[in-house]
Amino acid sequence: QVQLVESGGGLVQPGGSLRLSCAASGIIFSKYRMGWYRQAPGKQRELVASITSLGSRSYADSVWGRFTISRDNAKNTVYLQMNSLKPDDTAVYYCNAAYGGDYWGKGTLVTVSS
Predict the structure, then answer these.
(1) Residue 67: beta bridge partners?
(2) Average pLDDT value over all residues in the chain
(3) Bridge partners of 72?
(4) I need a labelling partner for 26 at 20 to 30 A (CA). Which of 34, 45, 78, 113 fits?
């Protein structure tokens, strides 16, 4: 079955960095558009960044210049490097795989606080 497993979340001070990873199994990873979404308490889930099967990237305006999405097709893994973190980045971050069907991980919590 398809599994997306996120890791790398945690507590970080404002201005700090974190790197999230999402390991995929059960899919032909290289064919999938991969995305990172986040959901803060009381808010809707929003797209943070995505990367197509050809490596084309897109970002939400709120994270432009601070976050970088990348993928390693040999490792079936997508990453989200998050720099200059702000308290507003606090959320549960979810990995998404899309190619016809749509798959989600269970999420990893990122808390930005002093």
Answers:
(1) 82
(2) 97
(3) 77
(4) 45
